[in-house]
Amino acid sequence: MTGPRVVIVEDADDIGRVGADLVAEAIARNPAASITAATGQSPIGLYAALAERYRSGAFETDAVTVFQLDEYLGLAPSDRRSLLGWMRRSFLKPLDVDADRVFPLTADGDPRKACAAFDQSIEVRGLLDIAILGLGRNGHLGFNEPPSAAESPTRVVELSAITIEDNARYWGSLADVPTRAITMGMRNLLNARQVVLLASGEVKRAIVRQALEGPIGPEVPASLLRAAKADVTVIVDRAAWGNR
Ligand code: F6R
User: Fold this and answer.
1) N or C: which end of the chain has fewer CB within 10 A?
2) Is residue 74 very low, low, confident or very high in pLDDT (cuts 50, 70, 90)?
3) 197 CA → ligand 1 middle, Å
């Protein structure tokens, strides 16, 4: 275990460029990569830069498989808050990833069975090759809210107050944020071959420090990356890193 590589860059634009280079190289090396990718603010620049590299022929996407990282529970697919819809707009469509190459997270029928089948789909494809993740202010990855064990499977979760508060800016008000979600579990994230974790802005400074330098454990799920076999790169901007 070598531990995460921390790349400190100037600002959010640089996070996008550096992150896109990493992901573009990874897909070029492995065109049949299994990928999971976060929604939210952090990866927006990366996705835009990645789409540019795709359009200029740096890699192809017809053989990739994408596994949805997280989704609010109980929304109609057409709901404006659907995270799959967000993924389509920011990642899947710009990269021309066909719907039949995407495994959405749904809890149709028996949620336990649906989650177990989702994990099995990742496992039969040989686990994830690339996970592009953001960092919650409480240390969550996906919607693996604290505490989340390293072995946690894909499951239904209650969102924490801090996550609901942070997500309200996307949907209007606190009342617009669903309180339950499904998240890919820590187990499959930690078993990914390559993890790219992005953190931007002063608002992430305290949790970046905790995740990278605090105790490793379920109370800060991102800290578990330090004990993972994965090749982990954490890309932070100056504001998230602080003056040290
Ligand atoms: C969303 C997700 C979350 C976010 C995290 C950071 O799909 O997986 O873990 O990545 O909450 O969100 P932003 O980037 O909006 O600060």
Assistant:
1) C
2) confident
3) 10
Token pair, residue 123, equals: 């496992």
How many A from CA of 195 to the centre of ligand 1?
14
Q: Is the pLDDT of residue 210 over 90?
A: yes
Is 140 close to ligand 1, i.e. is its CB under 6 Å away?
yes
The pLDDT tens digits for 228-242 are 999 999 999 999 999
Centre of ligand 1 from the C-alpha of residue 199, in Å: 9
pTM: 0.98
Neighbours of 161 (CB within 10 A): 10
The closest residue, in CA terms, to atom 5 on ligand 1 is 136
Contact 139 CB / ligand 1 (< 6 Å): no
Atom of ligand 1 nearest to the CA of 70: 7
Q: What is the pLDDT of residues 91-146, one digit of tens each?
A: 999 999 999 999 999 877 889 999 999 999 999 999 999 999 999 999 999 999 99
HEC secondary structure over 47-97: HHHHHHHHHCCCCCCCCCEEEECEEECCCCCCCCCCHHHHHHHHHHCCCCC
Domains of the chain with CATH codes = 5-241 (3.40.50.1360)
| The amino acid at 53 | R
Contact, 205 vs 139, CB < 8 A?
no
